[in-house]
Every structure is written in C-alpha cells, then in structure tokens.
Write a structure and sequence with these properties.
single chain; alpha/beta; Aspartate Aminotransferase, domain 1; Aspartate Aminotransferase, domain 2; seven-stranded mixed beta sheet; four-stranded antiparallel beta sheet; 14 helices; binds pyridoxal-5'-phosphate
C-alpha cells in the first residue's frame, strides 16, 4: 500500500492522556477554567435541535471581527489554531521550499513542515536566550514561502519590537512569503501586532481560545488577515471544521468582555505572586511574556517533574534536549493555583530559605 513518504517519516509524540486527574501546569491552559455559572448558562443553549444542525460560523465571525475592529471577510474560525497553521501552510507553502521559524518554538510548526514535505529553516537562540532578528532576516531567502513569528514565543517567552516585526514582514514581502504571527499568548503581553494586517498584505495573525479564554476542549482558533489571505485559506478548509459548541462558547465569551479582563488580572496576579515567591527563595526564574514561566530548579528538573506527577499529581513541562534541558516550564494561573503549585513544588525541590 502506498504511504505518503513525508507522513511516513514524520515522528509524532502526542500529549499524555488522563491529565484531568492532575493539577495541570504543563500545557498553558487555564488550570481552573471559566466561571461555572457562565459555563452552565451556555450549556443550557445546547438543545437536541442545536446538536442536530450543522455548524454556522458567520455569527461568531461577525462578532469576532467587530471585537477586533476588522471586517468579517478578514476573519476565519478554525478547529483550534492548530488547524489554522495547517491551512495556512497548505495554502501559502510549497513542497521542498523553506519555512523559517525560530528554534525552539511551538512544535506543530516543524511537524507540519515534515508532514507537508517543506524545508524547515530553524533560527537558533543565542546562549543567553535572546533572539537576534538579523539572524531571522538572514534566513529569509528566495526559497522562503512562510516565516513564523510567535508573539510572545512559546516556550522562550521573548517578544519583538515593532521595528523588528516590520523588518521581518518587509523582508518576507520582498521574496513573496507569508508571515504568520501567532499570538496565542498576547493576552499576557498586550503589545499585539494585529495592526500589521492592515498595513501589509502578507501577514496572518493567529489567535486561540485555548489559553486565556479557557476552552481548549472546544477547539477554537482564528486567522485574521487580508481579505485575499482569508479567501484563499477558506478554499483549503474543510466545510464544517469548527463545531457549533466551540462557536457558541466563543460568541458568548465575546459578549462578556469582563470575563477576559478578569482572567487577565487573575493570571497576572498569580504570575507576579509566584515570581516573587520564587525569587525570595533565591530561585533563578524567567518571566516569559506568555502565561508561563521558567524555573531553574535546584534538582534535576526531569526527576522532579516525575515526582511532582507521581507524588503530588502536578504536571509541569520539561525539555529532553537543547538549551531548555535544565529548566522547568510552569503555566501560570490565579494566585490560588500558584499557591497549590508551590505547596507541591517547594518541599520536593531543595528549597532552602535564604
Ligand atoms: C504558540 C501556539 N500556537 C498555537 C497553539 C495551538 O493552540 P490550539 O490549537 O489549542 O488553538 C499552541 C498551543 O500550545 C501554542 O503554544
């Protein structure tokens, strides 16, 4: 039987299952979720007739466009931003040609390169965890079809100045390449590059409802771009990819902007709290600009993560290789969520008070 050779050689590692039984600080979700009364009210709208009807994304798209100050023709809802990445790659990438990303970054960018037979050009960080934008610019050439910037980057948490982002967009435009600006984590770092969509015709911004908006289970992402980018990307999409429950939750969240504000304030408070608690105990920490931090643990982070899972039912993210081998990434949440984390973490690490 024929198997697509690019897919055959792609190596995948899927997230562990059974995570609901744990305190989850490993995948940058909101570990506590949305207010229960809001969820219950939305659930009451899910009737047998609602479930029997195919999804209709326009009401959500219109609300999202209004919320972003865009036209509905500039917005496309997708089955998580994961699916948005695939659609943009299929639409604007070319087999054998280059996709430029920084490294390390969100793994689905290189996974999609492998699946589609694109050539991944990783731009490495400096040993001090900074990124030189001139290295990104130098990696963009005639063969580049797509450049990816994460603002802020996951996992490194670095951000770009407007001048840096525009230099990348202009260089990409010179060679006819699309720039994907993935803003999964912009809520925690209010400097968005959404306005570049209005200024340049080769920019697509990605947003997700899985992180701050706390509905990772529903799978809802959004692409924002020029009308032409959205028109072409729609040609690549499945007819009914975003489900009605995701669209309903998305709409109701947009109708309640106070929820977004409260969640941002809560997560910021939790982040400030955990950073100051750890610093007070002499820990080296990195304030990644998303809803996650790095901790340089005193013990080996891999063994510690294992013990946290086994003994305390707490999940965190560690890295098997590369410059992040010695750190632990912890997703932040409310102050209460951070207190629960520290209660589990501190006694297990060698946490001598200074
Ligand atoms: C930078 C970035 N982009 C996109 C995603 C995918 O999010 P989703 O498919 O849940 O919308 C993630 C998830 O961790 C991410 O970190």
């Amino acid at each position: 039987m024929y198997v697509n050779p690019d897919i055959k050689k792609t190596v995948r590692v899927f997230p562990e299952e059974g995570r609901r039984a744990y305190l989850r600080y490993d995948m940058n979700e909101n570990s506590e979720g949305l207010p229960l009364d809001f969820v219950e009210a939305v659930k009451r709208e899910i009737t047998p007739e609602f479930l029997a009807t195919y999804p209709e994304p326009s009401a959500f798209t219109q609300k999202y466009a209004d919320y972003m100050g865009m036209k509905p023709e500039q917005v496309l809802a997708t089955n998580g931003s994961d699916m948005a990445i695939r659609y943009l790659f299929e639409t604007f990438g070319e087999k054998g040609k280059d996709v430029v990303t920084v490294a390390p970054s969100f793994e689905m960018y290189w996974v999609n390169c492998n699946i589609l037979g694109y050539h991944h050009v990783p731009v490495p960080y400096e040993p001090d965890m900074t990124m030189k934008v001139e290295n990104i610019l130098a990696a963009i050439g005639e063969d580049t079809r797509i450049v990816v910037l994460l603002n802020p980057n996951n996992p490194m948490g670095n951000v770009y100045t407007r001048e840096e982002a525009e230099a990348v967009v202009q260089r990409a435009r010179d060679v006819g390449a699309l720039v994907i600006i993935d803003e999964a984590y912009h809520y925690f770092y209010e400097k968005s590059f959404l306005d570049l969509v209005k200024k340049y015709d080769n920019v697509a911004v990605l947003r997700t409802f899985s992180k701050l908006f706390s509905i990772a289970a529903c799978r809802l992402g959004v692409v924002i771009g020029s009308e032409a980018i959205i028109r072409y990307t729609k040609n690549a999409k499945l007819t009914f990819d975003v489900n009605s429950i995701a669209l309903l939750f998305g709409e109701r969240l947009l109708e309640h902007p106070e929820i977004e504000k409260t969640l941002i304030a809560q997560e910021q408070e939790g982040k400030d709290y955990i950073l100051s608690e750890l610093k007070a105990r002499g820990y080296e920490v990195r304030d990644c600009k998303g809803n996650y931090i790095f901790i340089k643990t005193r013990r080996d982070p891999h063994a510690l993560a294992e013990e946290l899972a086994q003994e305390k039912h707490v999940l965190v993210k560690t890295y098997g290789k590369g410059m992040l081998r010695d750190i632990m990434r912890v997703s932040v949440g409310s102050r209460a969520a951070m207190e629960r984390f520290l209660e589990a973490f501190l006694p297990l690490d060698i946490a001598e008070e200074k």
